[in-house]
Amino acid sequence: LKVVVVGLGYIGLPTAAVIARTGAKVLGIDVSAHVVETVNSGKVHIEEVDLDGLVSGVVARGTLRAATEIEPADVFVIAVPTPFADDHAPNIGYVLRAATTIAAVLKVGDVVILESTSPVGTTEKVRDLLAQLRPDLKVPGKTGEGSDIAIAYCPERVLPGRILVELIDNDRVIGGITPRCARKALTFYRRFVRGACVTTTSRAAEMTKLTENAFRDVNIAFANELSRLADTMEVDVWEVIRLANRHPRVNILSPGPGVGGHCIAVDPWFLVHADPANSPLIRTAREVNDAKIEYVVARAAALIEARPGVRVACLGLAFKANIDDFRESPALKVATELARRFGSRIAVVEPYTNALPAAFAGTGAGLIDIDSAIEQCGIMIVLVDHDMFKSVPLDERIGKQVYDTRGIWPDQPAPKAWGEPEPLRL
Ligand code: SAJ
């Protein structure tokens, strides 16, 4: 079996490597020559648990290689980004470009699978494009007769940091343009998926993926709204959530400085954009989560302004714990805004980078390690719950003014108990 994976990013590369481990010959295609060279030298350009060992193994064995040019194969997997424009309109340009590339080498019997998170109807658009570009091939669902190729939508569901485990263990939803397409894609996924593989239509599978991430976004928005209410009412939100979650049918997620990453902060808009009149809850959740960033900036700024001259450590830039991914990161947005306002008073601690991102250029803020931050900074703004931060014991935090947006230090005493001046009312 020969498989081509188009797009060697956070999903494409781990997927390509896992398929290569089954013994299939896998070719990963990427537009970046740097990514192609890195993979071909057995290395990885992204940080993901155990991915480096897996990639070096399958490259050494000759089952995975990368290129910028496509080749014929039996199965094509599209794993390219689907960003949105300023008006939240989804941009499926990369998907259509990938389909165009595939069309050039497509032959009878091939299977084309779209994995990128996409608006409902995208797989049908891929089908229409392939039909247009390859009039010599019978495409599924267009004619009453059998088709020459199979086309399916099979969304990824993996969690960064657990990608290699979840690629294999999670259930997969496989949506065919026709039931026969779904069955052909199913045969492929059974090679490496241990979870259940459930077949449906491509439209239902597309909506399922968007629904999963919108569900999470709405639930995080609830937690973020609660944290603002609790601040107003001077109650510890973490305690309230812990207590409420003792109810057998309540399961509140964790508040934070906002929602980041390239999925949950993006995908709900695909639903809203498709039908604004019928999606007020999903839209509001997005707005609540985005507004949390400004709220955190305002509270942190009040804390910093009240202590002139005191250095401030912003702990974390990643969009969530224990990863190096800064895409759509609320922590990055908060820290850059504070750096812009308070300049060299701001020190950033981020164990997952060696240099501050370009957004900090000219602000005067610096990158320091956690030990230096503990020594030099009287104010600590916790933005990411990296394990390294969680492990800082109480005696190293005593006497510091802490704004913990992630609730990683439940033992941090209330400011009054430190014998400090009357604490700020934020
Ligand atoms: N977050 C909170 N509070 C929480 C949980 C998360 O503030 O209680 C924040 C995180 O800090 C982060 C953001 O939400 O900024 C998203 O993190 P996440 O861990 O919820 O999700 P992602 O973006 O890493 O991965 C999600 C997953 N989707 C669901 O859990 C429904 C994953 O399974 C998907 O494969 C992935 O999106 C994707 O690619 O779509």
TrEMBL record:
InterPro entries (UniProt xref): 6-PGluconate_DH-like_C_sf (IPR008927), NAD(P)-bd_dom_sf (IPR036291), UDP-Glc/GDP-Man (IPR017476), UDP-Glc/GDP-Man_DH_C (IPR014027), UDP-Glc/GDP-Man_DH_C_sf (IPR036220), UDP-Glc/GDP-Man_DH_dimer (IPR014026), UDP-Glc/GDP-Man_DH_N (IPR001732), UDP_ManNAc/GlcNAc_DH (IPR028359)
Keywords: NAD, Oxidoreductase
Transmembrane portions of the chain: none
Pfam families from the UniProt entry: UDPG_MGDP_dh, UDPG_MGDP_dh_C, UDPG_MGDP_dh_N
Matches recorded under SMART domains: UDPG_MGDP_dh_C
Single Gene Ontology MF annotation: NAD binding
GO biological process: polysaccharide biosynthetic process
Keyword NAD carried by entry: yes
Source organism superkingdom: Bacteria
Protein's UniProt keywords contain NAD: yes
Domain UDP-glucose/GDP-mannose dehydrogenase C-terminal: 313-411
Family of the protein in this entry: Belongs to the UDP-glucose/GDP-mannose dehydrogenase family.
Protein name listed in UniProt: UDP-N-acetyl-D-mannosaminuronic acid dehydrogenase
Organism expressing this protein natively: Sphingomonas panacis
